[in-house]
Amino acid sequence: MTSTLPRPAKTQTYKHALTDTDRWDAYIPRDDDVFVCTLGKNGTTWMQAICALLIFREPELDFNPAQRSPWFDVTFEPLEEVVAALEAQTERRVIKTHTPLDGIPYHDSCTYITVYRDPRDAFFSMRNHVDNMKFLALDIPEMEPDEGFRFFVDAPYTAGGAPMGLTAAVAHYDSYWNYRHLPNIHFFHYADLKRDLRGEMAKIAQALGIEIDDELLSQLAQAASFENMKSKPEQFVPGVARDAWHDTSRFLHKGTSGQWKDVLSQASLDAFEARLAELLPPDRAHWLTHGSV
Question: Is there a catalytic annotation at residue 246?
Answer without folding.
Answer: no
